[in-house]
Amino acid sequence: MTSKESYRAELRSAARQLSDRGLYSAAKWASELLVDIDPDVPPSSSASSSRATPSTSSSARPLSHLHPDVAIYRRRLRSAAVGASGDVSATPPAGVSYISTPIPDDDGFDGGSNDRYLLAKSYFDCREYRRAAHTLRGQTGKKAVFLRCYALYLAGEKRKEEEMIELDGSLGKSDVVNSELISLERELSSLRRAGSIDSFGLYLYGIVLKDKGCESVAINMLVESVNGFPWNWSAWSELQSLCTTTDTLNNLNLKNHWMKDFFLASAYQELKIHEEALKRYECLLGVFRSSNYIQSQIATALYNLRELDDAEVIFEDLLRNDPYRVESMDIYSNLLYAKESFSALSFLAHRVFLTDKYRPESCCIIANYYSLKGQHEKSVEYFRRALKLNRKYLSAWTLMGHEYVEMKNTPAAIDAYRRAIEINPRDYRAWYGLGQTYEVMSMPFYALYYFRKSSYLQPSDSRLWIAMAQCYESAPLQMLEEAIKCYTRAASCNDREGIALYQLAKLHSVLGHSEQAAFFYKKDLDRMEAEDRQGPNMVEAILYLARYYKAEGRFEESEYYCTRLLDYTGPERETAKSLLRGLKIAQTIPSMDIEHFGS
Amino acid sequence: MEDEQIYLDPNSHLGVFLRSCILAFNMLSFEGVCHLLTNLVAYYNSNDSTYEMAEDDDFNESDYHGLLDDPELDCESSDLEEYGLENDPQAAEIMLHMQKNALPKFLEDNEASIDSKIKLDDDGAQSDSLAPLLNNFRSDDGLGILRSRWQVEGYLNAQAELLEKDAVSFPLNSFTATLKQLQKIAPEFHRVKYLQYLNALYHDDYIAALDNLHCYFDYSAGMEGLFSRSTSPSEFEVGRYETALLCLGTLHSHFGHPKKALEALTEAVRVSQQNNDDACLAYTLAAICKLLSEVGVSNMTGIIGSPYSLGTTTGLGTPLSTQQQLLVLLKKSLRRADHLKLTNLLAFNRLALAKFDLKHVKKPLLCFGPEASMKLRTCPISVCKELRLSSRVLSEFGADELLQLNDTGAFSTSWLKNLSTGANPWSTKLQKSRSLSVNDYDTFHFHAQPSPIPGSVLQLAGESYLLRATSWEHYGSAPLVRMNALVYATCFADAASSLELSSAYVKLIQHLSVFKGYTEAFKALKLAEEKFFSVSHSRIQLLKLQLLHERALHRGNLKVAQQVCDQFGVLSSSVNGVDMELKTEASLRHARTLLAANQYSQAAAVASNLFCTCYKFNMQVENATVLLLLAEIHKKSGDAVLGLPYALASLSFCKTFNLDLLEASASVTLAELWFSLGSSHAKKASYLIHQALPMILGHGGLELRARANIALAKCLLSHPSFSVSEDPDSVLDPLTQASEELEILEYHEMAIEAFYLMAIVYDTLGRLDEREIAASSFREHSMALENPQDEENLPTHWV
């Protein structure tokens, strides 16, 4: 049996089992993946045919004829496919093969209990959880027990949500807990001790423990669950949310199933190891060629790596294939916001609005739209709506903070950022936002703490270093040496806007380090030339260089820069002229003895 | 119960309370009623003694009335009413909410966890000290009793106070766990974060302290101000982050980062100027003063360079020295505090001024000519004045101050205290057993009403006594030092932090060691160590090292002395400009050890190095001591001529700073120097000693007196017209006195000298028996000097 065929068989059965137990989102995930397995491969010769796929059947992805900019992305895709084509099933390092996990059979039901289960499942589908649980009382089959416990858990969650609103304001913090947790934990732990628990039960046990705050035990349970039944994506994502550090991730004792790759990729993404995540996704793309999920994850990773153009291509493509998609479209909207693509964002907002306006993602997209239009109040309103729908929506808190900063409502901004940090203390954007807020309040020294924090979490982002440097440079602090250190750091990590180089040059010239200043002006000038930009910075750089070389006695270079200055209008032109005049005089004096060269 | 009619005046306190309860009930939404019912059912089912307090009959009448008559309670119920009327269900729900969660869940969760934590805690003593606190949580009158906002706040305030007073007895982790639990219960209490900050700060956890500080101010936006709670929050919509900066500054100065602290504080000055926060500005100025006075900053330029800068306001072109800036700042801050009626600050500033006056010569900002500087002296009168003024603030707390307390939770704090003492007799016992921080008269203290004087003011007032003791130490009056330290230790122990209290004890023990010898001092030290157990890096430890060093030097046990000296050096921070006093003392002791080992050139090098440091950091008082030491070194090396200028310089320093005792000691040294130049100078020497004698006999310690006596005898003996046989007592008296005192001190080297002289005198007198006694004592001491032995175990394992 070929691997793809086996993947298909596994997923098919898994999706059925998952949806049978009311684990809808996991079932959805599995079914999507099932459809996405590359259909072109004939079942027999998997290895040889997949080697052929990259060149020929990559046209199965409707990329090449869609967009002129697709070239970059295709290159990526191809390299991924080539990497994968080496051995399709060998995404793990050579020599390690996937462990095939037997698909567990469903419980055998005798007729009566099966009927009860059917009834309970219907109640469950109608969201009458307690009723479903009641129907299943006394049933001992694993499946029935799971559904009963799960229904109870969901009933508790529902009540919790309601209580949250009863007891508190809309976005206030709340400490309401699911009242079923304790009894559920008791039951599940006794079941586990008795050994009569299946992977689904373990998954439920895991989330109950997680809600109770026993995280390490929860991790163990979830690991056990995914080792027994690897196709439950919900279990994986719960596990991933518990892996807040790379250490925890590396210490997991996971069986080497292909689902593990999905998990690891997504975990890496979450831990901001984007390159690694990207690599894994591209490998997976070899098998699940048309998976929208993987595409969106790749696009997200690219966005996080600030490869905006590449990411945009993928998102556009994604939206074309799956026009009613809402998931991860908020990231697309962030991207469009960053690129200030007005019409595209407006189009996207309109589209998701019609698809489902009460999804947190759609609210966030609409908020972004308003924000780009400069209507910050409305934007905040939509962010609040998004947060009402999902109070753990990290990016919405951060973005709302940005909006509040725009509205000069600093306490609200700080509160929003802090909420984001509460949800994920590693969110460098929120830390950065806090720093910015305090900087706006002209408290640069206080802000430094936050910038330090954010650059600690994301040391490769030049913007954070620049922000820190600007704090050091600000009028009250005037710690130029430290500012230079920060700018140097920023310049070394791919500073697109070239702020760092320019500032380094300026600071060095202020401090009288003319050599370094000239070096950085030159570098900045080269960069501007390479990107074909113009501007006052350019004039300044040229002027400085002209003066510097003149002072150094390198007249030819100086003359070169002076003549370049003559192309510009304004006072610099006059300065250049006088400099040139000075150069002439300076050159004539020493060139007395080498007169014959001139003549 | 049903048929019992209860007549209740609707206008009485209880009546108003019930009415507002009914009102709040009527305003409740259906969900609110549901929650209330659930809670009632939970209470009914739990049926434990959680609520017993309320039904308890052993409230005695007067207590009850005391409680009721208090304006606070009134305020609470009216609060409720206000809530009930204005922001209807929400406020009522806050209370319910608190109640619901605080009661069953907390107890359930904590009973196990805290208990086990205590058991896990290795340090039995530590957890024991926390036991009464935790007991509040655990047992039946537990944290569950904290129902309203103010009560939780009161609890937090009490903890904060305890932390600041006696941080060591709070085990870091278990208190953090408690706070976390509390935060879970009441997430809207940002003050919990502040407590976490304090906890981390006092346990020297820099990162946690920093994180919690920022966290606290991010959430609270400085609105629940630390000293000035803004009554109308709508007034300040921008948030008051200057307080945050002030705290950040104090944090950095606590951890010994003077530069960062100054940056933070200057920013605080700027922001509070921006926001017109005068109170914060005054506090910030005071904090800067404290920093400047504590940290050795040799040069201000480049640290505070911004244009608002403190020195330029005097309108003088020349830049001011650190000390001058400090004085200007202090005066400014004092004026501001006076203007704003910030009593704490006023007291603090006066103390700071007194400290400044103690150690600095006030130079007029403009002075011309050499003769102007000739008259410069410190002014003890102004020190006294400031000290008196600073403790006067106590009297300024009148009845009107009580009204301002109502929103700080002070009432609840004392209510809690009262509860813990009243309801839990055994916990009181526990508290008493470690009664170091409780005044002796405390048993009579009635807790139910908040004391009109806040603890912080009391602390400052107490501190003035401590400073009095210190200043007398400088001026050289031992009895007054002892008296002031005693006053402090007995009357202000309640409000004092363990650090301050320990320094009062240190002063007392030092006094003992100087006047009664080491055996007594070590006995006392042992007692003190029991009181201040496990205080790391504390003054007590320092004192132990000091005593050990002195004793080792006296006994001639140089190896031990060197060892102790090294330990001294390790104690201070390695950062430049921090822990200056400790560093000075360490190198002073180093030089003295070297001197005792007869390594004169090295000792002189260390001492002159120290002199340079002191000069650089403007530590004039220390200069006098160092100069005297240099003179001693030269005296011992036999180079009396070189020693003379040092002794004279030291003498003049002593005169300038009114250091009378040190001056006397310098005079003795000077006399000895003269004497060693030859017997022709004996007359001059004896004149010098006679001049200093009143001071020495009145206030001097054993060593100084012995030295003076021996020198006196030597002068007499070398006098050509003096014959022993005519007037033996005039020589023998001082010698016997000196030898007795030196025996107490176990100062072998000098004792040898004394007995030697005695033996000679007896020999010339022909009193052979007494001569033999003196000679055998002489032998004893010289044996002891040659083979120093350690009776006690040596302190190798402390540091």
UniProtKB/TrEMBL annotation, chain A:
The keyword Transcription does not apply. Gene3D superfamilies: Tetratricopeptide repeat domain. GO terms for biological process: anaphase-promoting complex-dependent catabolic process; cell division; positive regulation of mitotic metaphase/anaphase transition; protein ubiquitination. TPR repeats lie at residues 360-393, 394-427. It comes from the Eukaryota. It holds the Pfam family ANAPC8. The keyword DNA-binding does not apply. This is Cdc23 domain-containing protein. It comes from Canna indica (Indian-shot).
Automatic annotation (TrEMBL), chain B:
Keywords: Cell cycle, Cell division, Mitosis, Ubl conjugation pathway. GO terms for cellular component: anaphase-promoting complex. This is Anaphase-promoting complex subunit 5. One of its GO terms (biological process) is cell division. Residues 194-293 form the Anaphase-promoting complex subunit domain. Belongs to the APC5 family. It comes from the Eukaryota.
